[in-house]
């Protein structure tokens, strides 16, 4: 009887929620308008008359295919990559990741045995839950994805090592080494050493090292990225990591600057491949960013302003989940990045997300963080707290909690 009353009251809370006419969006990890405002000076930069780099090159014209040296130096410092091994490209790192995989399929990568399209059942390891757009790239190009679930919030190195050692069709692995999307996991030194040092059956195995959140700290601790290129070189596999990053969630997503880093051999390969594609990147946008940042400390200062805006939002999510879902669900406590990963009881995530949608709260579709959108446990929900206003965020998380509790009740 008690449980029937409980259910009735949840049904009632849900009916009230639906009647309240919410339209809230927790789907994508986008900066809020107040975060975007931090970078408004970019809109007036570089300004009339400012179009030369430090060496006097006229940036209004073609050329400079590697990108602006001064901007590469800033991000080299932030990413722990020598600036001559870091190229500054266009507006989106995803485009570089996509192109890397296209090039690997069509022409192959250094040290390989030919184009990956000739590898029977070519496959890439995908730690899950992971970033949906990484998976979309592979799915769209017909590359097989092998999910490798995190275990207790850590990479399952035993499974990864045994898969890559025995199967030459596995040519790569997605890695978000800092504040992973969506789990918030940051790889440890031991984990990175294992990844760069492990034996692989494929001669040209690559780590797609997407350091999208390298400077996106949510606490006062500001750990530096690990020197993955140096570690790979010392481990005897210098060509293994391909590093990606961008200013997407530093300045303006979609209107920022993306970076590619690698060993000298990989950088030379990328240069050669890119030269068939473009005469050079948008150096004026790079100059605008250079003027705005000034130096690496300028980027760190800006990121602290982002933190001041978004850390309270993450704290609100933590508080509400703690009040409403303790004992029912588990969630991550990220110290950086853009997401909270919510694990609800098996078999209830898609119902909870559908209930939320019907009550006007849009969430990333259940299963999105898995290859082929297949969450075998149907338990994963990604929360993106940055975009909504604080009031909207709290209303959306309260609503989500009611939907999770109702989904669990209905499943019993
Ligand atoms: N990588 C990860 C892990 C992301 O979460 C995102 C989304 N911000 C991106 C890449 C996209 O970056 P870009 O806008 O530079 O393509």
TrEMBL record:
<keyword id="KW-0032">Aminotransferase</keyword>
<dbReference type="GO" id="GO:0004069">
    <property type="term" value="F:L-aspartate:2-oxoglutarate aminotransferase activity"/>
</dbReference>
<dbReference type="InterPro" id="IPR015422">
    <property type="entry name" value="PyrdxlP-dep_Trfase_small"/>
</dbReference>
<keyword id="KW-0808">Transferase</keyword>
<dbReference type="InterPro" id="IPR015421">
    <property type="entry name" value="PyrdxlP-dep_Trfase_major"/>
</dbReference>
<dbReference type="InterPro" id="IPR024551">
    <property type="entry name" value="AspAT_Ic"/>
</dbReference>
<dbReference type="Pfam" id="PF12897">
    <property type="entry name" value="Asp_aminotransf"/>
</dbReference>
<dbReference type="InterPro" id="IPR015424">
    <property type="entry name" value="PyrdxlP-dep_Trfase"/>
</dbReference>
<protein>
    <submittedName>
        <fullName>Aminotransferase class I/II-fold pyridoxal phosphate-dependent enzyme</fullName>
    </submittedName>
</protein>
């Amino acid at each position: 009887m008690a449980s029937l009353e409980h259910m009735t009251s949840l049904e009632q809370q849900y009916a009230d929620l639906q009647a309240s006419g919410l339209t809230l969006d927790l789907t994508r990890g986008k900066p809020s308008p107040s975060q975007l405002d931090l970078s408004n000076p970019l809109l007036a930069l570089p300004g009339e008359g400012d179009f030369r780099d430090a060496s006097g090159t006229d940036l209004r014209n073609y050329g400079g295919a590697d990108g602006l040296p001064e901007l590469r130096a800033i991000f080299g410092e932030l990413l722990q990559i020598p600036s001559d091994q870091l190229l500054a490209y266009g507006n989106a790192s995803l485009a570089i990741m996509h192109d890397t995989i296209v090039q690997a399929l069509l022409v192959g990568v250094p040290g390989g045995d030919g184009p990956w399209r000739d590898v029977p059942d070519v496959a890439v390891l995908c730690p899950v839950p992971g970033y949906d757009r990484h998976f979309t790239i592979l799915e769209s190009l017909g590359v097989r994805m092998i999910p490798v679930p995190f275990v207790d919030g850590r990479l399952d190195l035993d499974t990864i090592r045994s898969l890559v050692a025995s199967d030459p069709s596995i040519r790569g692995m997605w890695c978000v080494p800092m504040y992973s999307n969506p789990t918030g996991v940051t790889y440890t030194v031991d984990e990175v050493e294992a990844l760069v040092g492990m034996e692989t059956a494929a001669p040209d195995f690559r780590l797609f090292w997407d350091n999208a959140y390298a400077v996106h700290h949510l606490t006062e601790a500001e750990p530096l990225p690990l020197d993955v290129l140096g570690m790979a070189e010392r481990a005897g596999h210098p060509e293994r990591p391909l590093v990606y990053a961008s200013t997407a969630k530093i300045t303006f997503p979609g209107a920022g600057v993306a970076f590619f880093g690698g060993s000298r051999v990989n950088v030379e390969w990328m240069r050669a491949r890119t030269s068939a594609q473009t005469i050079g990147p948008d150096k004026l946008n790079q100059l605008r960013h250079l003027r705005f940042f000034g130096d690496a400390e300028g980027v760190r200062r800006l990121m602290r302003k982002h933190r001041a805006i978004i850390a309270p939002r993450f704290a609100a999510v933590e508080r509400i989940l703690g009040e409403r879902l303790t004992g029912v669900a588990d969630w991550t406590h990220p110290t950086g990045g853009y997401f909270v990963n919510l694990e609800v009881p098996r078999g209830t995530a898609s119902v909870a997300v559908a209930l939320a949608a019907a009550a006007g709260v849009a969430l990333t579709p259940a299963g999105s963080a898995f290859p082929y959108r297949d969450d075998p446990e149907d338990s994963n929900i990604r929360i993106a707290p940055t975009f909504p206003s604080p009031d909207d965020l709290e209303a959306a998380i309260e609503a989500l909690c009611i939907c999770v509790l109702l989904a669990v009740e209905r499943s019993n």
